[in-house]
């Protein structure tokens, strides 16, 4: 007799009351397994910058963008309530496309109309915001698909197990499962094509022009998704030819933001200026002049919200810091260029001469970096100007965590731990790739350090860079576009001095960060190492010997760098995607009970990469020596 027959007969013999209890327990066990599988799937999809770009986008000003629901001619309501396919939001740089997309994702009226489209089906909504100045995941197809799939699995865990490939459900092998773009496409399309799931999905995807690879490929990817019967998309982009060819008069609906925001911009200007006590005082004495200034700002804006934001900030600074008169305000407004490029050029030219060298170096490093910069970047650049070899000479500070046991057998802290105890909470620490690490007990001194850095960036970089949370980013994609113009690059390189190599400077910065207190785990060390290794093919020939010296320092300190942290790169799918396939040891997290010791840097894939680079640069004999 088969085992399952025996179990069945045994179950039949149980009294009915007990049978109900057993059935309920079995049901709960099944639910538990489903939850566990979905949690593992979510963990496999998650990446460090999952929501950071969305959080950076300014919320819509009160009572703005309501026209998208009120004006039927725009077609958004009709598309949301009745149509499939793609709705295209386009507009000038800085016109407010991202803010509008975030508004739609968070606006209850959007969901009211989408539920009419979904009918008797359930409704799922997912979103993604591309960010070209951000991290690799924020500007790639992999990041897009993972974020969309993550949102769906969170909303519909049971349905996820029907659509996602079985190998990603097995909690025993999930730790080794590595999502490929093909896997992600198949999973999303499975959701969109399986009408038996009883669910319809709408995706909001912002900033297609910020995608870092071939835009034609992205258009094709979105086109495939839009053809799924249970799925539709609202996308936004600049009016580039590649998107105009794909969507102009071909999408199920479209609108140009800058043509619709005049009323919003006027409301925003009036509210911001009328909230200023000095401006209200001027309105009492010079009401007509104040009205003309408000109207003039709106006229010069040409539908570009970002320009308005920057100009208002400058005008309000003059009012509050300098007690500007109405005549000075009028003169300021007349002098402002009426384009973003013109505005950025004005800010760039007005940086004080004493700061220009450091300013140029900070901006060039920001352009060279594939990720947002850490808060301490201005400090590192200043140290580099005094001593180009500062990073190699820096001492290592160990990572300290409350409640963490000492590695010493006598329970006393190590030298590194002593150094870290005083500094581990010195400030909310900045992870690579824009990750923000908050510390609950950040002191007032730490907050002052953040503000001091903000003032430093304002003085040296104008409105081109800003501090966002605990990282330094470009104010907007348009700021990066401005700096990448050949004449501006030429000026910055001349100011920075001819021998300055931004990629070498970035490598030094990464080494300084590795040695500092903030990396709480070896994962952060691994991310920094990945950035360093990416610089090899970008470093100028004249800088290669200095780059090799930095790699030698990393290799020399590798074991200690990782040992002081809680565990290197296990579980970080962005970094280890092909490591295991290549047969190299991945640095594992140290077990709580110490029953399984983690691997060391010396036999890790990172060590192989660093030493391979050194051999390519003719430093193999130095490796043997140390």
Are there runs of 5+ residues with pLDDT below 50, and where? 1-11, 171-176, 399-442, 565-597
Mean of residue pLDDT values: 81
Give helix % range. 55-70%
Biggest sheet character: 5 strands, parallel
Rg over alpha carbons: 28 Å
Strand content: 5-15%
Intertermini distance: 68 Å
Oligomer: single chain
- Estimate the global geometry from the Cα principal axes: globular
What strand order characterises the main sheet? 2-3-4-1-5
Structural class of the helix and strand makeup? Answer: alpha/beta
**Count of helix runs:** 31
Topology, number of strands = 8
Structure description:
The protein is an alpha/beta fold and about 625 residues long. The protein has 31 helices and eight strands. It has helices at about 5-10, 15-45, 50-55, 65-70, 75-80, 95-105, 110-120, 140-155, 155-165, 180-195, 215-225, 240-245, 260-275, 275-285, 285-300, 305-320, 325-335, 340-350, 355-370, 375-385, 390-395, 415-425, 445-460, 475-485, 485-495, 500-515, 520-535, 545-565, 575, 605-615, 620-625; strands spanning about 85-90, 120-130, 200-205, 230-235, 255, 375, 465-470, 470-475. The strands form two sheets. It has a five-stranded parallel β-sheet with strand order 2-3-4-1-5, with helices on both faces. A three-stranded antiparallel β-sheet has the order 6-8-7. Strand 7 and strand 8 (about 470-475) form a beta hairpin. Helix 8 packs across helix 9 (about 155-165), helix 8 crosses helix 10 and helix 15 packs parallel to helix 17 (about 325-335). It is globular, with a radius of gyration of 28 Å. The model is unreliable at about 1-10, about 170-175, about 400-440 and about 565-595 (pLDDT under 50).
